[in-house]
Amino acid sequence: MMHGHGVASAAIEDRFNTGRVWLHIDEDSWEFHITVESGHDPDDLRYVIDFAEGQGLTLLDLDECDPQILDGNRIRLHLKSIVDSGE
User: Fold this and answer.
1) pLDDT at 16
2) Which residue in 6, 13, 38, 81 has the fewest CB atoms around it within 10 Å?
3) If you write DSSP's letter for every residue of 43-86 in order, what string do you get?
4) In the predicted model, is pLDDT for residue 1 greater than 80?
5) Tell me, what DSSP letter sits at residue 2?
6) Which pLDDT score, from 0 to 100, does residue 5 have?
7) What integer pLDDT is reported at residue 84 of this predicted model?
8) Neighbours of 70 (CB within 10 A)
9) What is the DSSP code string of 4-49?
10) Distance between CA atoms of residues 38 and 29, nearest Å
11) What is the spatial distance between Cα 53 and Cα 48, in angstroms, rounded to a whole number?
């Protein structure tokens, strides 16, 4: 547990969960995204984005990839590696 926010990890996949905001990191598949449920706390989303940036990830620009609307009033925001993007 980290600052009241849950962290769970496995060898292939890490998920960072603050309640209604999840960070998915799968380096083997090069898949990085944040899933946000409706009614989430904006501070939780900011916390997860900041955490992702600390892991070398940043949100994709809208011209690179639209957010994905999922079932259950959830939205997926895709991330990219800052190292690979040249930032």
Assistant:
1) 65
2) 38
3) HHHHHHHHHHHHTTEEEPPTTT-PPEEETTTEEEEEEEEHHHHT
4) no
5) B
6) 35
7) 56
8) 12
9) TBEEEE-SSEEEEESSSEEEEEETTTTEEEEEEETT--HHHHHHHH
10) 27
11) 9
Tell whether 1 is covered by a domain.
Answer: no
Length of the chain: 87
Q: Which two tokens stand for residue 73?
A: 């009033």
Query: How do residues 4-50 score in pLDDT, each as one tens digit?
Result: 333 333 333 455 666 789 999 888 888 999 999 999 989 889 999 99
Cα–Cα distance for residue pair 22/85, rounded to 1 Å = 23
Alpha-carbon gap, residue 62 to 7, rounded angstroms = 28
Q: Any bridge partners for residue 78, and if so which?
A: 33
Give the domain extent around 76: 6-85
Give me the number of domains the chain comprises: 1
Question: How far apart (Å, rounded) are the C-alpha atoms in residues 80 and 40?
Answer: 23
